[in-house]
Amino acid sequence: MNLTSSAKERLLRNYGPWALVTGASSGIGLELAKQIASAGFNVVIHGRNQEQLTHLLHELKTTYTVDVKIIVADLTEAGGVEQLILKTQHLPIGLFIASAGLGTSGKFIDNSLHTEINMLRINCEALMMLTHYFSQRFCDQKRGGIIVLSSMVAFQGVPFSAHYAATKAYVQTLAEGLAEEVKPYHVDVLAAAPGPVNTKFAKRANMQMNMALSPQQIAVPILNALGRKTTVFPGMLTKVLVYSLQTVPRWAKIKIMKRVMGGMTKHHVKQN
Ligand SMILES: NC(=O)c1ccc[n+]([C@@H]2O[C@H](COP(=O)([O-])OP(=O)(O)OC[C@H]3O[C@@H](n4cnc5c(N)ncnc54)[C@H](OP(=O)(O)O)[C@@H]3O)[C@@H](O)[C@H]2O)c1
């Protein structure tokens, strides 16, 4: 799926000329970086995998003749966020996309505290620090767009991925509140809340997804929603999963999620 020419014009006019995409070396961030480069954005692509980023840089430069810069930074390490801020402060950035993130699964009490803290740092702390910085910058310049990756798991507790779901609830709630605060400054904030997407995420989170969307199916709906709503459930599968649970009470959703996530993690979780 590709952006239409009017969608490209709208995005570049409202949020150009430069964008920063964290987690652009893989999955959803990578596809979002490609789509915005196709719209004519110059892009700062971030990740840890230098080889993947270099490959993407060449692809974007040759396919779309845009300017591309790479920032390699581990967001669990002290100084990771500061590097991103320092290396982008001279660029006229109008769009910030926070896609860097990871998940964990299994029983919370069995998981390594170190891994859970690292996830908290990437999914919440780094995202919050960067969102704080870019919100201030965008409010000062009276224009800008911020997209954060929430998830459909953000809306209730999720047994066997309890802490990951909690990090996404944090992201979702931050985005909803912030969106209202910065609207008077012509700054748009969007929480993208996909269902399962086929990326490196599942393997890294030790989950098995039986059904999943591709990053190509969700990137365009995400970008088209920026400036038009505060939360987007991108892709048909996400909509079916979210809307089928809409009238279910929260306590029952948690029981359903227990079955779903129990199935996705049963290769390593004993449920009782
Ligand atoms: N896939 C899904 O089903 C799904 C559903 C809902 C929401 N999401 C959210 O979507 C976002 C993107 O995930 P994805 O599915 O695209 O997964 P992915 O393919 O694993 O991509 C994750 C990205 O985050 C980066 N990253 C991971 N740890 C990092 C660290 N310590 N420091 C800096 N960067 C780091 C990775 O960089 P390197 O590869 O270079 O290490 C990669 O670019 C995440 O926030 C995830 O929670 C995913």
Explain what this protein looks like in three dimensions.
The chain has 272 residues and is an alpha/beta fold. It has a single domain (5-264), classed as Rossmann fold (3-Layer(aba) Sandwich). The chain has helices at residues 5-15, 27-38, 50-64, 80-88, 113-141, 162-182, 201-205, 215-225, 236-244, 250-264; strands at residues 18-22, 42-47, 68-72, 93-98, 144-149, 187-192, 231-232. It is globular and about 45 Å long. Bound molecules: NADP nicotinamide-adenine-dinucleotide phosphate. Residues 23, 25-29, 47-49, 74-76, 99-103, 122, 149, 151, 194, 196-197, 199-201, 204 line the site of NADP nicotinamide-adenine-dinucleotide phosphate (NAP).
CATH architecture field: 3-Layer(aba) Sandwich
CATH topology name: Rossmann fold
Number of strands: 7
Report the sheet with the most strands, covering strand number, pairing sense and barrel closure: 7 strands, parallel
Which term fits the overall shape? globular
Pattern of helices and strands: HEHEHEHEHEHEHHEHH
Full CATH superfamily name = NAD(P)-binding Rossmann-like Domain
Low-confidence residue ranges: none
CATH class descriptor name: Alpha Beta
Helix content: 40-55%
